[in-house]
Request: fold
Amino acid sequence: MRWALTFSNDLTTQYFMKFFIDTANLAQIAEAKELGILDGVTTNPSLMAKEGITGKSNIYKHYKKICDLVEGDVSAEVISTDYNGMIKEGKELAMIAENIIVKVPMIKDGVKAISSFTEMEISTNCTLVFSAGQAILAAKAGATYVSPFIGRIDDINWTGMQLITDIFEVYSMQGFDTEILAASIRNGLHIVDAAKAGADVVTCPLDAILSLLKHPLTDLGLQKFLEDHAKAAK
Ligand code: E4P
Reply:
């Protein structure tokens, strides 16, 4: 994809940012899907807990429901933090559906696990990424996606979006094909800025996606069109 951008004259149409929804809420996933713009879903243990889904069996059943609802990639995060546990869990998660992406934290055993999953041809999303150095390790290990957390960096008064710019520059320069998945998105401006910074994917809460629709001039313009139409019909 980044290669397409570099040689954009004849290949620009191949480059566009994917939209994932960042939730485990089935109704919200369905609402985003109805817009016709949904390319996938990301979840994490906090989002599953928010839906009240507990216990391995229920959690796996819920992942299956999400995977049945969307055609695109669905990130499902391992809970284990040791290599053997992550490998066992990742293999189980990958068995749930073909579109499962095993989400692995950016820790030492996580990088090791991603390398092994790459050899096993199991797709991965390296999560909790807060630096370009971490993103290089994820890419070297063969992660399918890397998830830099924009909002959480903003929360500590640093500039989250700069991380997308930095990773994009490094990956482009080095030819890494790991996709940059801008995560921890808080609002519509984050979505636009992630697109400008070169993110391959943006994963957002539903309200951030819907906020892109809003502009007062659109509302005023529509109101005027409808009023003029009604007047002319009299
Ligand atoms: C997605 O993969 C992340 O888990 C998520 O975007 C984190 O977002 P938050 O910082 O709003 O919890």
Notes: Residues 3-9 have pLDDT under 50 and may be disordered. DSSP finds 13 helices and eight strands in the chain. Residues 22, 42, 44, 127, 147, 149, 151-152, 183-184, 203 surround erythose-4-phosphate (CB under 6 Å).
